[in-house]
Structure formats: structure tokens, C-alpha cells
Design a protein that fits this description.
The complex is a heterodimer of chains A (293) and B (445).
Chain A (H helix, E strand, L loop, with lengths): L10 H28 L2 E3 L6 E3 L3 H7 L2 H32 L6 H9 L6 H12 L5 H8 L10 H29 L3 H9 L4 H31 L1 H7 L11 H11 L3 H26 L6
Antiparallel strand pairs in A: 1-2
Helix pairs in contact in A: 1-12, 2-12, 3-7, 3-9, 5-7, 5-10, 7-9, 8-9, 9-12, 11-12
Chain B lengths: L2 H22 L6 E7 L3 H17 L3 E7 L3 H13 L6 E5 L3 H6 L4 E2 L1 H8 L10 H6 L10 E6 L1 E6 H6 L11 H14 L6 E3 L2 H12 L6 H4 L13 H13 L5 E3 L8 H4 L5 E5 L3 H7 L4 E4 L17 E8 L4 H15 L1 H11 L6 H9 L2 H4 L5 H6 L16 H17 L4 H23 L2
Parallel strand pairs in B: 1-2, 1-3, 7-8, 7-9
Antiparallel strand pairs in B: 3-11, 4-11, 5-11, 6-9, 6-10
Helix pairs in contact in B: 5-14, 11-19, 15-16, 19-20
The chains are: A mainly alpha (293), B alpha/beta (445).
């Protein structure tokens, strides 16, 4: 049984496609092409003198040891944030899916952080952990921990990971919750009757049935940590100390926006784009096989 | 030109045409002068009041002041507007952006030319040399109009000094004395901090070098040419950072961060000594619940000629290029209005900005104002301590916003202990030089 809409000619289907096509071109392909073009140029801040330099911006990047350091930082940061926000989101969703009193309030509260802008989320965490004024920082100090994200790279990394994770948990929570609601109760009940304990029910039934959601979230979260987190890093650490929290996207922002080096910044964003495309392709090729739709 | 540029230009033109219709109509009677600035709080009021007073003083021109965010935001907004062909007339740019603005010869209108063409009286010698030098070319041509200026001073907590058995009226003068005092303070009064610095590179590299009359870079700190190289791995610089790296271990020195976010540690009483901008005055006055004072920056007594003079922080007003002559006439009139001695004196005493003309400084001095407010004079005494030398008249490095971040990274590495002070400063020089070469290349074509 083939499902196919019937159109009299070619004009109507293509003209119906046109709006979508126009949006994709104007908002995706056009800016991406511009970034590629800009990455081949060297320009002063005001754009008065422009030189076409072929791939020199890329070779400058390739010979810059700090750039490789940001790649390592990005890998650590992305892995931590994606794993933690997915795991905690799933845990909270499973908890909220139970029959509990005030479930609606609980769910609503968990969704709230998603409405907070990244920079604001960063500032919130910054205040709590600010070495001399923050409440949590004072508590840590009371426990004898010399909390100092201004100079300790690990502390700074923990802080940005916490802020970025906190911001993303709600989103993951929401999708996992919807995914859980779609799992037929009868399947779980059948397993329960067969004597499967909750943990076993979760791993053998719930988790596989959630895998399409989890896969979707994995892709979205990777994109989130790679692109959307520079606001948090900017407001919390500014990439410091000693570049310990400078991720690739933050360096794109810092060099382009703060440093007015559009060519170098564009080259970095092209590299970043290629990496994310590759990562997504890998996910679709290998991880998706394990997904059960 | 390529397709993308011309396309976006058409977009912009269409957008602008739409807004121009609504905005331009009532301006026919008065010439509007757009002034983009980065002043918040009390300083924002000062800007708006200046514009209002100027507008009330004559009817031909109208200065419209618009707040555009932080210093970097304002500068980026101006650059973006210029690229779209829609720059403001006057743009407030922080001192770090000076070299970038100066290099953009096609984008700016030198203030000296502006005043001459408009027939306004303008004497570069009437400005404080440390101020005028910062914003002038090597030949002495003033390119931008100094607006809000500050310098680095050492703030200290007199109550903590008393508690530690130190004389609150004789603050430490040299770095070794500061280290000693900080150790005593930490032992007896403030257990978490001996001293701290905000704006780590401005205080510990830029002002530090100038105050010791040692070069930050060759070619008079970049003023004489873009082919300058950094010199901040000298023995004096390395010694200073080695000292800080040693003292940070037991919190005798507390790292205050790259910007002024660490300033709160002084007003909260946590850090008894803090080196930061003299512009911190208003904040201290409002928030410090203890007896406080400020003093000149410390120096190393074994460096010959130290202390020299300090240099500026703050911002100046840049006039953007490509505007019609009658609009430039309005800008020139506004600058003449701002330079007026009485107005400068009043601005200084009310806002805490430094006066920028010699006459205004003299006037405030002779009025006896500083007897009651000695803390406003400390930065002026530093700026005018000695006649500026080639190492102390200012600094001009392209890409300085990025370079400061690189320097901060290296300083942080030294303070973390992951690099020695020597390694960190060597890296600061080589990485900084790479940025300078890139800047030189994009501006000298």
C-alpha cells in the first residue's frame, strides 16, 4: 500500500515546497556559506581592507597549540554535560512518572529552568559559588575545601558543567516524561506479573522503548553543548582560568565578537560545523542501529 | 564585491529606508548628533545631563545620547553600524580599543582636524600631558577626545590596618612593604586575604610597567608604529609575577579576576588592600562600612627611576568618518562645550572622573576641594608625578582586547603553578606578538 499524494503537475508541489525551501536557504545555507567565505578572508575590524588569503586562517589555527587545547576542553565539557543532563533528566522523569501527590507541581517546577536564558543561568550559579560572597562557596569553605574557580581549573570546569547541565535537565526531563507516558502500561504490568522487579522492568522494557527519545535527545544535547553554552561560559568564567574552560564555541565568540577577528573566528566556526556534522552522522550511522522504534 | 555583501547591503538599505522616513522628518529643523556610550548608573545620568545642557544652550544641534551596553558591546555596535554604513557621529571607546580605532583611518575623523575645520578653538597643550598623549599620534595629533579617565590606585582598609598594628596614615609605599603589611593583616585582621588586584593585566602589566618606566613593548609601547614587540618578560616583570605566585599559595595575595568583579572583596572587608581603578571611588564611598583611604600604587625600590607616572584607564570619544560638514560642526561645538574649564571642574568634583584639562585641575586644586577629598587627587598626582617618558606616555597595541585575555591566561597559569613566572611571561610575549603581527598585517595594507 503506497501512500502518495496525487498532483496534476509539477508546479503545485514545488510551489508548496517553496516557503520551506526559502526558509532553509535564507536562515541556514546562506549564513553557513557566508561563514565559509569569511573564513577565507583576512579583514580589519571595520572591514576597510579585505584580503583573500585562501586557507591561511585554517593553517594559523592548525599551528596554534591553544586551539588543540580547546578541543580537549570541549570534549571533556561536552561529554560531562551531555551525560549528566541526560542521566539526571531520565532519573527525574522516571520519578515524576509515578503516581505521587502533587505530581503536576513537581513537573512544572522541573520544567522551569528551561525558561531561563543561558547567561542568566550562568550568573545564578556564579553567585552561588562566588568564592567570597556565594552561599554554596561559603559552605564548601566551611567543609575545608579551598573553593577557588578563579584560579583552579577543575573548580571552574565543575561550575560551568553544573550550570550548563542544570539548564538542560528540564528539556531532557520533558521529553523523557512524554516518552514514558507513551509506553503502554500493559507491557509493564505483564512484566510485573511475571515477577520482574522495578529495576529489571526499567532496563528490559522501559529503557529500550525510550530509546528513540533518548537518541533524539542525545543528538539535541550534543548540539546544545557544542553551540549554545558559550553564554554560560562567558558569564561564569570567561573561558578562564588559563583557558581551562575555553571551549571551541566560546573561542569562536571571543575571537570574533570580542576580538573582531572575523576571519579566524569564521574558520573556527567552519571547523566546529564540520565536527558537529560528523558527530551527528556517526550517531545516525552507529547509535541509531540500536534504537528500537 | 561578492554576492553576500551586496545582498546584505540591499537588506540593510531597505530596512534603513523604512526607519529613515520616520526618524528623519522632524530633524530638518535641528541637526541631530548621535552619541553612543557605555555609561551606567550615576555616570549615565552625567552623560544625559551633558547632552541636555548642550541642547538647551543652543538650538541648531541636538545631541542624542544612547546607551549601547558595556564598553566592548558599544565598540562592537559601532563597528557593526559602520560596516552597515550607519555609524553614529560620536562613539565612546574604552582605552583598550584605542589602537584599533586609530588604525581605522578611513572610519574615523581625527578630533584635531574636526576642530580646525569647524573653526573651534582647540589647543592640545591645554590637556594634561598624560591624557593627551594617550589619544594622540606619535606626531602629537590628537585623534580622539578624552572623556572619562581614571588611573590605578591602592585602596586600603584603615580599620584593618589598626587591628594589625599598622599605621593607617602611613600606607606601604613599595611592593616589599605591601607584602609585609599583607602578611601582618592576614595574620591579625583578615584571615582570607592579604591583598588583591582587580583588572589583573591593566594593574600588573600595563600600569606596573609605566609606573616603573620599563617598556611594555618597543616603539614607545606601540605609539611609534605597528611593528612593535612586547617586552613584558623583563626581570622586573618576572620577579613581580613570581612574587604573586608565591604569595597566592597562602592567600597573602588573592587573585581578583580579569575584570573588576573581585572589587567586592574590598568593600565587604575581606581584602584589606586592593589595587584597582580610581573610578572605584563611588562604590567605596557608598558601600564600605569601615574607615578607608587610597594611596599611590606601590613600586619596587630597586628599579631606577620608579615611581615614574601612571597611565590612563577609561574612555575617549571618537568621531566617525563620512558625515556631512554641518554635522561635524555640531560635534565640534559639543566638544568645545565639554572642554569648558568650569564644566570640567564641575564634572570632576561631582562624578569622580579625572579633569582632563590643566586649567580644570588647577581650578579645583585652588578651590581647596582636595583638602576635604584627598582621594580624588591621588590618581592625578600619579598621572602628573613626572613628565612622561617614551615608556610612560601611554600604550597602543592592536588586538589588545584579545591580548589582555592571552596575558590573563598566562598569569593564571603562573598563579596556578602550572607554569613558572618566566615561562608564563615568555608565552605572554610570544602569543601577544603573534596577535600584534596579525593586526599589523590587516591594517598596513
Amino acid at each position: 500500500m503506497e501512500r502518495r499524494a496525487l498532483f496534476g503537475g509539477k508546479l503545485l508541489p514545488y510551489s508548496l515546497l517553496l516557503p520551506q525551501f526559502a526558509i532553509v536557504v535564507v536562515f541556514f545555507y546562506f549564513p553557513a556559506a557566508q561563514a565559509v567565505w569569511q573564513s577565507l578572508l583576512m579583514q580589519d575590524a571595520f572591514g576597510i581592507s579585505t584580503e583573500f588569503v585562501w586557507f591561511e586562517n585554517y593553517s594559523i589555527l592548525a599551528s596554534n597549540p591553544e586551539y588543540y587545547k580547546t578541543m580537549g576542553t570541549t570534549a571533556v565539557f561536552s561529554a560531562l554535560v551531555a551525560f549528566l543532563s541526560l542521566a539526571i533528566g531520565l532519573l527525574l522523569a522516571v520519578m515524576a512518572d509515578k503516581q505521587i501527590k502533587g505530581a503536576t507541581i513537581y513537573k512544572t517546577m522541573l520544567i522551569w529552568p528551561y525558561a531561563v536564558a543561558p547567561a542568566v543561568a550562568g550568573v545564578l550559579w556564579l553567585f552561588m559559588f562566588q568564592p567570597s560572597l556565594g552561599m554554596l562557596a561559603k559552605m564548601l569553605r566551611g567543609w575545608g575545601i579551598d573553593w577557588n574557580p578563579l584560579l583552579n581549573g577543575n573548580h571552574a570546569m565543575i561550575l560551568v558543567v553544573l550550570a550548563a547541565t542544570w539548564k538542560q535537565i528540564s528539556y531532557n526531563f520533558l521529553f523523557f516524561l512524554a516518552g514514558l507516558a507513551a509506553i503502554p502500561k500493559s507491557v509493564i504490568e505483564a512484566a510485573a506479573i511475571d515477577g520482574a522487579r522495578p529495576l529489571r522492568r526499567f532496563w528490559t522494557i522501559v529503557f529500550p522503548l525510550l530509546s528513540p527519545t533518548a537518541f533524539f535527545l542525545l543528538v539535541v544535547n550534543i548540539v546544545y553543548v557544542f553551540f549554545d553554552t558559550f553564554g554560560i561560559i562567558d558569564s561564569v568564567t570567561g573561558g578562564g582560568p588559563a583557558g581551562n574552560t575555553t571551549t571551541m564555541v566560546y573561542k569562536v565568540y571571543a575571537d570574533g565578537k570580542l576580538g573582531s577577528d572575523l576571519g579566524g573566528s569564521a574558520a573556527q566556526s567552519v571547523v566546529l560545523m564540520v565536527i558537529v556534522i560528523a558527530l551527528t552522522a556517526i550517531q545516525f550511522k552507529f547509535v541509531e542501529r540500536k534504537v528500537q522504534y | 564585491m561578492y554576492l553576500g555583501r551586496s545582498l546584505s547591503k540591499h537588506f540593510m538599505a531597505a530596512l534603513l529606508a523604512g526607519t529613515a522616513l520616520t526618524v528623519a522628518a522632524p530633524a530638518s529643523a535641528q541637526v541631530e548628533i548621535q552619541w553612543w556610550h557605555a555609561m551606567t548608573g550615576a555616570n549615565n545620568d552625567v552623560v544625559n545631563r551633558l547632552a541636555a545642557e548642550f541642547n538647551a544652550s543652543q538650538s541648531e544641534y541636538k545631541v542624542v545620547a544612547s546607551y549601547k551596553g558595556s564598553y566592548p558591546d558599544t565598540m562592537n555596535a559601532g563597528i557593526a553600524a559602520f560596516r552597515a554604513g550607519n555609524a553614529p557621529h560620536i562613539m565612546q571607546v574604552f582605552e583598550v580599543g584605542t589602537a584599533t580605532m586609530m588604525a581605522a583611518r578611513g572610519a574615523i575623523k581625527p578630533v584635531a582636524d574636526l576642530m580646525k575645520e569647524a573653526g573651534e578653538r582647540f589647543d592640545p597643550n591645554s590637556y594634561l600631558p598624560a591624557v593627551a598623549g594617550y589619544y594622540s599620534t606619535a606626531k602629537g595629533e590628537m585623534l580622539s577626545f578624552p572623556f572619562n579617565s581614571s588611573s590605578t590606585v591602592m585602596w586600603y582598609n584603615k580599620d584593618a590596618f589598626r587591628k594589625a598594628g599598622l599605621n593607617p596614615d602611613a600606607p606601604p609605599k613599595t611592593w616589599p612593604e605591601v607584602f609585609e603589611a599583607a602578611k601582618k593583616l592576614k595574620a591579625a585582621a583578615t584571615p582570607n586575604c592579604g591583598f588583591s588586584t582587580a583588572w589583573v593585566t591593566w594593574v600588573n602589566i600595563e600600569q606596573f610597567s609605566v609606573w616603573h618606566n620599563i617598556p611594555i613593548g618597543t616603539k614607545s609601547n606601540g605609539i611609534d608604529g605597528f611593528d612593535t614587540e612586547f617586552k613584558i618578560n623583563s626581570p622586573t616583570h618576572v620577579k613581580h609575577f613570581a612574587n604573586l605566585a608565591e604569595l597566592v599559595k597562602d592567600k597573602t595575595y588573592v587573585y581578583g579576576g580579569r575584570t573588576n568583579t573581585g572589587e567586592g572583596t574590598f568593600t565587604s572587608g575581606e581584602c584589606p588592600i586592593l589595587l584597582t581603578s580610581s573610578g572605584f571611588y563611588g562604590n567605596v564611598k557608598a558601600n564600605a562600612k569601615f574607615d578607608w583611604a587610597n594611596a599611590p600604587m606601590p613600586y619596587y625600590p630597586d628599579v631606577a627611576g620608579a615611581p615614574q607616572n601612571s597611565t590612563l584607564g577609561g574612555a575617549s570619544l571618537w568621531v566617525m568618518g563620512g558625515k556631512p560638514a554641518n554635522e561635524y560642526k555640531g560635534v565640534a561645538k559639543f566638544f568645545a562645550f565639554l572642554s569648558d574649564t568650569d564644566r570640567q571642574a564641575k564634572l570632576h568634583t561631582e562624578s569622580g572622573y579625572l579633569p582632563i584639562t590643566k586649567a580644570a585641575y588647577e581650578k579645583v586644586k585652588s578651590s581647596g576641594f582636595y583638602n576635604a577629598n584627598p582621594y580624588l587627587e591621588t590618581p592625578l598626582k600619579e598621572l602628573t608625578n613626572k613628565p612622561p617618558t617614551e615608556h610612560s606616555k601611554g600604550l597602543r597595541f592592536g588586538n589588545l582586547v584579545q591580548i589582555r585575555d592571552i596575558w590573563s591566561e598566562e598569569i593564571e597559569a603562573a598563579l596556578q603553578g602550572t607554569k613558572t613566572a618566566q615561562q608564563a611571561m615568555d608565552a605572554a610575549v610570544s602569543r601577544g606578538n603573534a596577535m600584534l603581527r596579525q593586526f599589523e598585517r590587516t591594517v598596513t595594507r
